[in-house]
């Protein structure tokens, strides 16, 4: 503001071009008249002093050298008139008058020149006011604008011509922070006033400006005027407001967050680490490991500056004022997370996270997870927030989960064992029945009056065969349950069909079923476990045989077919029984699903596992009569 103090609020008025021309003309006329009178009348040099009028008239218009040119011209004209009137006859009185006239001209030129210089300074200052970005205007005692700089044009939107003569504060709808009388009294007393005011721009926009008023008095006229310099601080105020709101929001979050937060003053930590460095400590981790008391000492210096409601609750403290003052008050002696924190801090890590235990006011040890972000520079070290999550419930849940998991594993093992034994029981049933049948037959051949040894031998061979098959079935089932079919080999599909049918030969005969074996894939080979695949086919054939006990004996037919379809071997087993009961076709492959009174519901489930283990598919096909099941296996190329 001081740069404005010397600037007069009464800018010199500029003459119009016409006035200027008139003055120049007048001055020329005066000069000519004075010259004529001086030269040709007997007044002899008495009027030469009137050349001063010329300077007074046009001096303001003649900057620098021009002023002196006009002065010298006037002096020359006076001297010429003198020479003309007196020739060589020089008298004292006229000579003295000429001297006085020339001296008066010199003094007038000097004073005009000084006045001009002063005015130029003022004009330069006025120009300065124009280039400043502040809005500056001057108002007279009636409040009317007498000066309006470019900054004011830019800020308020009114041009100088529009603003001049207007009541400044009515135009700007200025809202003052205090009654205007009070401010006027203050200005009258101090000569200045400063405050924040609200004003309106030409386009209606509201501005907040910092306004500085200076009372100026014109020395010449004694009139008062006020120079106002206004700096737009709307953005600043908006930023302040945004900051205030954000701070309020932060406070709300801080206080209502479900996570505990406490604020630390970590400046002592920085000081302590700097001291350690100055002492020559280079490997901080090593130093802290060797001197555990160092971390403890630094911890004792860390203050807790603020805390939210959740933290109070977690730590069993009723009031903020009663909360732990220092970090060491809540971290137990045994805590080593603080040393890790120091190392992370020292390494310039952006973030630190750890799990530790804190001691509540009631002495309860609470497992917590602590996370904090380090401020990017040392500026914010006095208020570093750490979020603390109480892990008590999580730990409890984890324990419960672990317990539940181990119980589940136990149950799964038991269930697997159950399925395994049930499957073995199911699959071994058939060979056992075959053994029993064959052994019975052998006994009968031997019990005859003349024992038929050949038949008995054949029956015993069947017993041996069935027993070997039973052992293989057990091995296959175990492999299947473990998902690792053991013996993989290239198996001709039609061979599988014939061997499987062989195993159910006796059941088929006993139930009076006609077996129609129709192998149509002579060269098709699949890769897999022979026993597992045979057993799947045996299961399907036995299901068909059992289902057909519900229909008259003469209609019981079991079709077993094979064919090649693209890259697949297709096996179809169809019977002439009642077909799948409604809904059973969808659920038939589920383990333990059965509609038979003594059924186990495992046959089809085992078939599906067996086929899936060989990358194949099994499905119940639609059928007009009886059940149709199809197996598709990838054929070896
Ligand atoms: P289980 O024979 O012990 O019942 P399965 O898994 O072999 O177990 O069969 C499941 C169910 O599918 C049977 O209870 C039966 O309802 C139905 N099912 C299986 N095969 C046939 C079939 N050939 N004809 C009609 N229904 C069948």
> How much is the radius of gyration in Å?
59 Å
CATH superfamily of the largest domain, by name, is Histidine kinase-like ATPase, C-terminal domain
Biggest beta sheet summary: 5 strands, antiparallel
Helix content: 40-55%
* Average pLDDT level: 87
Keywords summarizing the entry:
single chain; Beta-Lactamase; 19% strand; 5 domains; disordered N terminus; binds adenosine-5'-diphosphate; 5-stranded antiparallel β-sheet; alpha+beta; 17 strands
SSE layout:
Layout: H1 2-5, H2 17-40, H3 51-58, H4 65-86, H5 92-131, E1 135-140, E2 145-148, H6 150-156, H7 160-163, H8 168-171, H9 180-190, E3 192-200, E4 206-217, E5 224-232, H10 234-256, E6 260-265, H11 267-278, H12 284-290, H13 292-301, E7 303-307, H14 309-314, H15 327-330, H16 337-346, E8 351-359, E9 365-373, E10 384-390, H17 392-447, H18 453-481, E11 488-492, H19 493-503, H20 505-510, E12 514-519, E13 525-529, H21 530-547, E14 557-565, E15 568-575, H22 584-587, H23 603-613, E16 617-621, E17 628-634
Helix pairs in contact: 2-3, 2-4, 3-5, 4-5, 12-13, 17-18, 19-21, 21-23
How would you describe this protein?
- The relative contact order is 0.05.
- The protein has 5 domains: 17-129; 133-238, Beta-Lactamase (2-Layer Sandwich); 265-390, Beta-Lactamase; 392-484, Orthogonal Bundle (Helix Hairpins); 486-634, Histidine kinase-like ATPase, C-terminal domain (Heat Shock Protein 90, 2-Layer Sandwich), CATH 3.30.565.10.
- It has helices at residues 2-5, 17-40, 51-58, 65-86, 92-131, 150-156, 160-163, 168-171, 180-190, 234-256, 267-278, 284-290, 292-301, 309-314, 327-330, 337-346, 392-447, 453-481, 493-503, 505-510, 530-547, 584-587, 603-613; strands spanning 135-140, 145-148, 192-200, 206-217, 224-232, 260-265, 303-307, 351-359, 365-373, 384-390, 488-492, 514-519, 525-529, 557-565, 568-575, 617-621, 628-634.
- It is built from 23 helices and 17 strands.
- It is elongated, with a radius of gyration of 59 Å.
- It is an alpha+beta fold.
- The chain is 52% helix and 19% strand.
- The strands form 4 sheets. A 5-stranded antiparallel sheet has the order 2-1-5-4-3. Strands 7-6-10-9-8 form a 5-stranded antiparallel sheet.
- The structure holds adenosine-5'-diphosphate.
- Adenosine-5'-diphosphate (ADP) is lined by residues 543-544, 547, 575, 577, 579-581, 584, 588, 593-596, 599-605, 627.
């Amino acid at each position: 503001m001081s740069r404005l103090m010397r600037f007069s609020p009464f800018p010199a008025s500029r003459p119009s071009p016409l006035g200027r021309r008139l003055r120049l003309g007048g001055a020329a006329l005066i000069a000519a008249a004075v010259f004529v009178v001086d030269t040709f009348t007997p007044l002899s040099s008495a009027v030469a002093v009137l050349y001063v009028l010329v300077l007074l008239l046009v001096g303001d218009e003649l900057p620098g050298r021009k002023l002196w040119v006009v002065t010298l011209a006037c002096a020359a004209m006076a001297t010429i008139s003198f020479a003309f009137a007196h020739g060589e006859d020089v008298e004292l009185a006229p000579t003295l008058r000429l001297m006085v006239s020339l001296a008066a001209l010199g003094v007038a030129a000097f004073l005009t020149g000084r006045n001009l210089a002063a005015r130029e300074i003022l004009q330069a200052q006025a120009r300065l006011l124009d280039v400043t970005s502040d809005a500056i205007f001057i108002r007279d005692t009636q409040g009317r604008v007498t000066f309006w700089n470019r900054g004011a044009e830019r800020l308020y939107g009114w041009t100088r011509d529009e603003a001049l003569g207007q009541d400044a504060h009515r135009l700007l709808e200025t809202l003052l922070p205090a009654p205007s009388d009070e401010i006027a009294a203050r200005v009258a007393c101090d000569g200045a006033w400063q405050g924040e005011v609200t004003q309106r721009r030409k386009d209606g926009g509201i501005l907040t400006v910092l306004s500085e008023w200076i009372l100026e008095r014109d020395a010449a006229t004694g009139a008062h005027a006020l120079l106002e310099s206004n700096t737009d601080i709307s953005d600043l105020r908006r930023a302040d407001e945004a900051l205030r709101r954000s701070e309020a929001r932060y406070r709300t979050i801080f206080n209502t967050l479900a996570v505990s937060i406490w604020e630390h003053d970590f400046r002592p930590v920085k000081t302590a680490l700097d001291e350690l460095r100055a002492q020559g400590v280079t490997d901080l981790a090593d130093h802290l490991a060797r001197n555990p008391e160092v971390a403890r000492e630094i911890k004792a210096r860390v203050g807790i500056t603020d805390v939210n409601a959740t933290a109070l609750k977690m730590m069993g403290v009723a009031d903020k004022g009663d909360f732990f003052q220092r970090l060491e008050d809540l971290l137990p002696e045994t805590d080593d997370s603080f040393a890790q924190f120091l190392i992370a801090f020292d390494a310039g890590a952006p973030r630190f996270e750890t799990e530790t235990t804190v001691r509540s006011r009631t002495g309860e040890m609470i497992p917590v997870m602590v996370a904090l972000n380090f401020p990017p520079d040392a500026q914010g070290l006095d208020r570093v927030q750490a979020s603390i999550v109480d892990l008590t419930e999580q730990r409890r849940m984890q324990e419960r989960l672990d317990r539940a998991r181990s119980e589940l594993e136990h149950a799964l093992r038991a269930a697997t064992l159950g399925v395994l034994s049930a499957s073995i029981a199911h699959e071994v049933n058939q060979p056992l029945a075959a053994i029993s049948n064959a052994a019975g037959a052998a006994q009968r051949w031997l019990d005859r009056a003349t024992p038929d040894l050949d038949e008995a031998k054949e029956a015993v061979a069947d017993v041996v065969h069935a027993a070997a098959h039973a052992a293989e079935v057990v091995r296959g089932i175990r492999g299947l349950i473990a998902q690792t079919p053991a013996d993989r080999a290239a198996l001709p599909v039609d061979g599988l069909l014939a061997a499987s049918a062989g195993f159910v030969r006796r059941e088929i005969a006993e139930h009076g079923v006609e077996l129609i074996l129709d192998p149509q894939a002579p060269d098709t080979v699949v890769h897999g476990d022979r026993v597992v695949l045979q057993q799947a086919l045996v299961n399907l054939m036995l299901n068909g045989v059992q289902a057909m006990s519900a229909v008259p004996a003469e209609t019981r037919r079991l079709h077993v077919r094979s064919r090649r379809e693209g890259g697949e071997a297709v096996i179809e087993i169809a019977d002439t029984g009642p077909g799948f009961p409604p809904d059973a076709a969808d659920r038939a492959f589920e383990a333990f699903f059965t509609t038979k009174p003594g059924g186990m519901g495992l046959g089809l489930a085992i078939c599906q596992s067996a086929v899936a283990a060989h990358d194949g598919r099994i499905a119940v096909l639609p059928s007009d009569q009886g059940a149709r099941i199809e197996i598709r296996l990838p054929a070896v190329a």
